[in-house]
């Protein structure tokens, strides 16, 4: 992917506060990862690197191989230096072009879940075994809060129409960082917020997501009553 000239000024670049905070956050996480050696989080690391490097149009396999060799280090700081050194330029691109990476991440999730479009920002997939419609909201950077809210309402109305025709849908679930950051909004929309997603499930479905992810649910009856009434 070819990135346009960064909108971040030169004064804001290498030593700016936003860079420093992100570098420190990543290094702290890598240090903990090396000490804990949690397999699920390690897979999350590889998934995120694959996402970042592929988004720029480069081959992530070389970097992942280099990082795998880093596990042989005895000194945790040495491991952090290897991983950070190998990924710094991709981290910088993500900081400088958040809107592009968010769009790529959104499209990637849509493809991964095999979802059906409900509105501009809202999709759903069906877990037929359990009779659950799982909704996914993937905001675009060019839409404000009002636009996101309208798209969410439009999506819920469309889902209600789909559910009325499809008796297999018994329950609706929302899984997103949006649920975690705006639980009150989901409750007003008729959902019951269940709380944070467990780490194993998060890594499985959202391995490239750094923000907390929570789950909420709604009964079929509530959906039809609230959005078809």
Explain what this protein looks like in three dimensions.
The protein is α+β, with helices and mostly antiparallel strands and 229 residues long. Helices cover 58% and strands 14% of the residues. The chain has ten helices and six strands. The protein has helices at residues 17-36, 39-55, 61-70, 76-96, 98-113, 145-165, 177-181, 183-188, 199-206, 220-228; strands at 116-117, 122-127, 132-137, 171-176, 192-196, 214-219. A six-stranded mixed beta sheet has the order 1-2-3-4-6-5. The longest helix has 21 residues, at 76-96.
Keywords:
14% strand, disordered N terminus, 6 strands, 10 helices, 6-stranded mixed sheet, alpha+beta, 229 residues
In short:
By secondary structure, the protein is an alpha+beta fold.
Low-confidence parts lasting 5 or more residues at pLDDT below 50? 1-12
Main sheet: which strands, in order across?
1-2-3-4-6-5
Approximate helicity band: 55-70%
Q: What composes the largest sheet?
A: 6 strands, mixed
Structural class: alpha+beta
- What is the molecular shape? elongated
Report the radius of gyration as a whole number of Å.
Answer: 20 Å
Query: How many β-strand stretches?
Result: 6
Which strand-content bin applies to the residues?
5-15%
Please give the alpha-carbon distance between the first and last residues: 46 Å
What is the mean predicted local confidence, pLDDT? 82
Topology as a string of helices (H) and strands (E):
HHHHHEEEHEHHEHEH
């Amino acid at each position: 992917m070819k990135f346009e000239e960064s909108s971040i000024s030169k004064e804001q670049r290498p030593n700016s506060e936003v860079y420093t905070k992100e570098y420190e956050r990543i290094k702290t996480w890598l240090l903990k990862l090396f000490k804990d050696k949690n397999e699920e989080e390690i897979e999350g690391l590889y998934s995120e690197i694959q996402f970042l490097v592929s988004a720029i149009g480069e081959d992530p396999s070389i970097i992942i191989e280099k990082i795998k060799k880093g596990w042989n280090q005895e000194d945790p700081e040495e491991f952090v230096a290897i991983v950070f050194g190998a990924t710094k330029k991709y981290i910088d691109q993500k900081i400088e072009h958040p809107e592009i990476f968010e769009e790529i991440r959104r499209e990637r999730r849509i493809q991964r879940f095999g979802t059906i479009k409900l509105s501009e920002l809202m999709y759903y997939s069906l877990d037929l075994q359990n009779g659950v419609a799982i909704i996914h909201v993937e905001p675009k950077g060019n839409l404000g809060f009002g636009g996101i809210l309208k798209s969410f309402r439009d999506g819920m109305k469309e889902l209600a129409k789909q559910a009325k025709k499809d008796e297999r849908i018994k329950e609706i679930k929302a899984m997103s960082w949006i649920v975690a950051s705006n639980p009150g909004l989901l409750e007003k929309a008729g959902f019951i917020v269940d709380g944070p997603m467990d780490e194993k499930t998060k890594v499985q479905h959202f391995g490239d997501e750094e923000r907390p992810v929570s789950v909420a649910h709604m009964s079929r009856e509530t959906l039809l009553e609230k959005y078809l009434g």
